[in-house]
Amino acid sequence: MEGKAVPGQLVESRSGRDSGRVYLVVEVLGEGYVKVADGMVRRLENPKKKNLKHLVLHHRVAEEIAEKLQADERINNPEIRRAIERLVGNPEE
What is the CATH number of the domain that holds 63? Predict the structure, then answer.
């Protein structure tokens, strides 16, 4: 699935050194780029800038993270890790 990403969306890297790693979108930038974090290797303090062409966009969104990002509320790395675990563990969500 390629297209538009939204904050809190589950994505998977399809190219590069981090190929196969799953992330959550933490910021949507212009010109087809997003910033992603996984709360472990790529923490919120240093999110990775990725081209949308290099990501597999999944239909699953961490609603609680998306709401906090929309409201400019603070999120932390353990929240990101828990959200990814929930989304990866529940494929029908």
Answer: 2.30.30.30
Nearest CA to 69 among 6, 22, 2? Answer: 6
Distance CA 51, CA 81 (A): 22
Residue type present at position 42: R
The CA distance from 54 to 87, in Å, is 20
What's the token pair of residue 71?
């409201």
Tell me: the pLDDT tens digits for 35-74? 999 999 999 999 999 999 999 999 999 999 999 999 999 9
Residue 4 lies in a domain: no
pTM: 0.88
Contact 5, 55 (CB under 8 A): yes
Other C-beta atoms closer than 10 Å to the C-beta of 63 total 11
